[in-house]
Protein 1
Amino acid sequence: MLTNEPIKILVTNQKGGVGKSTISANLAAYLAIQDDLRVSLIDFDRQASSSRWTKKAPDIGIRVAQAEIDYQSAGLALLSARASLRKFSSGSQICICDLTWTPAMSEDFMMDFDMVLIPSSSAKFEMASTEIFILEYVQKKMARLAANKQNLIVIPSRVDPGYASHGTFTNLDFLANCFIAPPIYRIPDMDSYVYQDFFCVCSDKAIADNFSAFGKYISQKIVERKETLKTLSISGPSINREIAKKVSVLDDYRNRAKNLGFYGGAAMAELKQDSNADKTQDDLTAKSAQGQYIPGFLRKNQD
Ligand SMILES: Nc1ncnc2c1ncn2[C@@H]1O[C@H](COP(=O)(O)OP(=O)(O)OP(=O)(O)O)[C@@H](O)[C@H]1O
Ligand SMILES: [Mg+2]
């Protein structure tokens, strides 16, 4: 991973009103205040709830952007979303995106994130729809998810105090990369906070403690993600090294095959010109009776 790449967090669900914007704005604030991180917030939703909240509340240095996605076609939607993500996340350490998921968006966009947070109430219908949303995504992207170890985190949202996560979202239990975050409780006088204040620093200790427990959990997941990224072979310069290694083995194989007279691939023409360029003298003298090159690994059997 390139060291200046931000950790990208998508807050999404195809369900409306589950708390995506509330969580996006307040998580951005938590990470900026408590963890002293440079945070950018991209609001992909027309209502602009999370960006408005972050702009109206006291300025704590969060970079806020409202971005439009062009849904004219699937290709344009992906392209415009990716362009905004690149543009507005650059220079920050954490980028949080607030987006209502629609089938018009390619799952490839979801794959661009280090973690996907999925707020959901604990009502049975909503829990089931959240489980289906996650399972469909995992089914489509299984191979790549296994490779990039993206975290999927369900957030029980607007739940009654005393709610226990245990025994909920059980259809996701088998997914190694899927977690249930500490719940965010229903706030009775919610509208006195909207646009005014951030939960983690508000004067109501119960609300501040509840949100901070969630924030701390995500903060820990960010630390773990940074560690994981160091070991992933599919990102940054390491993938280039891996590919380079494979390509050079392939070139070597093609050279040998071509010299044995059984390689007819497209690269044949270029290989013809410099096939002997990197052979040792020993290799070059090892010709068969027909004048063909016999590579070292076959020579033993021919002697
Ligand atoms: N923890 C909470 N306690 C009480 N009310 C909440 C809580 N979280 C969100 N709300 C309220 O629920 C409504 C929906 O929340 P929010 O706008 O954050 O959800 P959303 O998923 O972004 O919705 P949309 O799909 O419309 O973008 C809002 O009126 C918000 O004030
Ligand atoms: Mg919203």
Protein 2
Amino acid sequence: MTVLLLLLALLPIATLPDVPPQLKCLVESYPGALCSATATELVWCDGTRMPYRTGPERTTHAERLANGDLADQMRQTYTPFVPATPPAVDQEPGRIRNEAFFAKLYGNTKAEVLAHTTRLTWLDGKILRVTTRFGIDQRLAAVRDELRTLPGKVAAPAFQTEGTLVWRTIRGTTRRSAHAYAMAIDVGVPVSDYWQWHAPDAQGKLAFRNRMPIEVVRVFEKHGFVWGGRWYHYDTMHFEFRPELLHPACVGGNTVRQ
Ligand SMILES: [Zn+2]
């Protein structure tokens, strides 16, 4: 039995029986932090086990946003590289975040987050604080360098940034912002649209707005960042590192990178 367990531990996670693809995508997206998974748990490399589902089950999108578990976080599929189109109501893959998961990845206090950061100069000369976890500083540098190569003035809006690390909660909530973890960046504010800046229509529905060039979005997606312009509650200046949603086994639509 011990030998069998040892053999199972040595197998690549893809071959483990009963491990849902969402758990596989999480494990393979955060090497060094996550080491394995069972049918119901993530296994961190420090031995911590984190349940994929926690009860009682949340049935509304608002409940999932406020108190989502890992299953809620992985519930919606992100489709990269496609044109920007109005998302369906509450379709916003990546916007649900399990706070305990991200706090463990990046730090649970501002000091813990800062301990893993470095400086990165953006295209407008602004110096940003970016986490070094999972090579995110290098990935963001690769985004920056690729934006420079886009033709004409396509990427010009993204040359301007409002920053990365901000230790704060999301406006109007007690939930911690992705910016608290130094793995998110806001670019192109003058051409940006945010759902809270506009009143919903008479039926309470948000009207999608976007002026961010899709070429810019595709560069970020190529390097592991999801875009807030693919959310019903749109935030078109916002990009955050969420490789689990871009993993080939979890991504939606056409997975061929453009
Ligand atoms: Zn943002």
Protein 3
Amino acid sequence: MSNAALSVITSDSPEKWQEILADLITDPKELTEILQLESTGSVNSRLARSGLSEFSLKVPRPFAQRMQPGNWSDPLLRQVWPSQLEDEVDCSLSEDPLQERSFNQATGLLHKYQGRVLLTAAPHCAVHCRYCFRRHFDYAANTPGKQQWRETLSQISRDSSISEVILSGGDPLAAGDNLIQWLLTQIDSLKQVTTIRIHTRLPVVIPQRITNSLCQTLSSVDSKLVIVIHCNHSQEIDSSVQLAMQKLRSTGATLMNQTVLLRGINNDAETLVSLSHKLFDMDVLPYYLHVPDRVTGTGHFLVDDQEGLKLIAKIRSILPGYLVPQLVREDPGSNSKTRLG
Ligand code: SF4
């Protein structure tokens, strides 16, 4: 990274990320104009008729800047563009493929796996990924106020088997610093909890979110802190993301990445190898390569297990073992992710 580039992005303005979050691209027409996309009439370019009202277009401008102008097949654009392919009817898909509603034990709390619970710390995200497995999730019913958080945390404290609390969402880093600090302090004070894990896409889509004050809060956590970023393509990583990861590394957190395997976006070995290298350059370990969940409206992204297995075999023949992510699938009701291969 050049010194000039660094000096531009190291200026730490806590409000900057909130300004970006308040100024997302939500109008498909604006996005096509910014990217100088011609209306080609292809099915990729045509807009979905369904789903847009409940899962609108949301693209942070720093993320759009990494898209290639004039290219409908750009891998970043395809992750966020609500294409007509979402309208295809496939009865094998479901709005709640992981049956999360049955694990939603209290407001903001999902208890799926032995020993760990997940809190939906923020009811929204900075980006709407069209493949999202929670695109139909009832966030309105899972946005606790402080009193409800206290009750939820008290419920966790009564279960001595829980040693790890996962902050997910939505995107937990879309919450304000005050709530994040309060939640981390509360969780940290639970005697049996040894690890706090944060799953987030914000360091990738709005790297300006990783402010010095957020890093101070993260550094103050006594539990082991694990931050799992969600990055699907090496084109998502630029100097601003590298700086964000450098800052997160300075908090002492263990950094890992989870990728969703997506047709037409990253389902080739060259792309995944490049992603692993770029992640490792930032001291981020490739952790999971997740077969997409079978969510209504996302059939065009699906990659089957056999194709995933072939890809992993190819990647394994190129990369050292520590750079090969585990290929996994989530099966509803199973007590852990299912490892493939
Ligand atoms: S950031 Fe994660 S939770 Fe939010 S829309 Fe994307 S995949 Fe879904």
